[in-house]
Structure formats: structure tokens, C-alpha cells
Design goal:
The structure is a single chain. This protein is an all-alpha fold and 161 residues long. The chain is 44% helix and 0% strand. The protein contains seven helices and no strands. The two termini are 27 Å apart.
């Protein structure tokens, strides 16, 4: 999705103020995108380490199975991997529902098999060796099972707002 078609971009013709009704007034500003670039996109993912408002929305509301968050989770995964945000990537997986985690795992394995080490902190909790070892190649199903079924969801972000 480009910024020019994003529901969170105030400069977009598709801007949807209704999305913000579920957010407390004092927190709404952090989710509003003000990108006014003529190109209408956020640029090359690998040249950016910053997150856009859509990524923040996904990270905040993925645990509530918000439809906008679930729909955009794949794009957020791409930005998190590109930016090297392993803690946020783990947060995304810990809070997403099963179907979303399954789709995200498939995307991760397909497009970023060399970046699975970003989950090492999650694997370490289950006494699994780091993802870059030979054991991972032989036991990828064990890692997949842990990421899909995990040990429960992390604390909901919205309660902290």
C-alpha cells in the first residue's frame, strides 16, 4: 500500500477518521500519517529504519485482531525485517492470532530465510538454539511450531495508552 492510498494518511483521499474512534484522544496523533510526498510511498524499505503510522497501528492493534492491522501485517513485517527491528518483530508474532502468525511465518521463510535469527530471543525462551545453526535447518518444524502456537500472547499494548 502506498501512502497516497493509506487510510491513516491525512493527505490521502482514502483517509478514514473513523478508524481513530477506538483510540484515546491523547494517543491519536501518533497514528496519523502526514506524508505528503508526490510519489505517494515511503521509499525504499532497506534505506529506512523508521516506522510509519501504519506499522505502529499494526503493532498496537494486531492483538485485537483489528482488520486494518491484520491486512497490513505483511507489509509491517517487511519493514521490521528491513529495519532490523527484531524486538518489534517478536512482538508482532507474540500478539498476532494464529492465522496471521501462520501467514507471517510463511512470508518470513519465503522472503527472508536468512533473517530468521531475528527470532532468536523467542527461541531462547524455549531453549532452542539460535536460528542460524545447522540444527534449525534440520528442525525447522520445531521453530515453526513454537512461533505458531507459542506460550501465550504478550501484554496488550492498548492498555498502556
Amino acid at each position: 500500500m502506498t501512502c497516497s492510498r493509506c487510510l491513516l494518511n491525512i493527505n490521502s483521499e482514502k483517509f478514514s477518521p473513523e478508524l481513530f474512534e477506538q483510540i484515546p484522544m491523547h494517543a491519536r496523533a501518533m497514528f496519523v500519517c502526514k506524508n505528503g510526498h508526490a510519489r505517494g510511498d515511503c521509499g525504499d524499505l532497506f534505506s529506512l529504519r523508521q516506522l510509519c503510522a501504519r506499522d505502529l497501528w499494526v503493532l498496537a492493534f494486531i492483538g485485537n485482531s483489528d482488520s486494518f492491522a491484520v491486512t497490513n501485517a505483511g507489509a509491517t513485517l517487511d519493514r521490521l525485517v528491513a529495519g532490523g527491528h527484531s524486538e518489534l518483530l517478536c512482538h508482532l508474532f507474540e500478539n498476532a492470532g494464529y492465522e496471521t502468525r501462520r501467514a507471517l511465518w510463511a512470508r518470513m521463510v519465503k522472503f527472508y530465510p536468512d533473517r530468521l535469527y531475528m527470532f532468536d530471543s523467542l527461541f531462547e525462551k524455549q531453549c532452542l538454539p539460535p536460528a542460524d545453526t545447522v540444527e534449525m535447518a534440520e528442525s525447522q518444524h520445531v521453530y515453526r511450531h513454537y512461533l505458531l502456537y507459542g506460550s501465550g500472547q504478550a501484554n496488550a499494548f492498548m492498555k498502556d495508552l
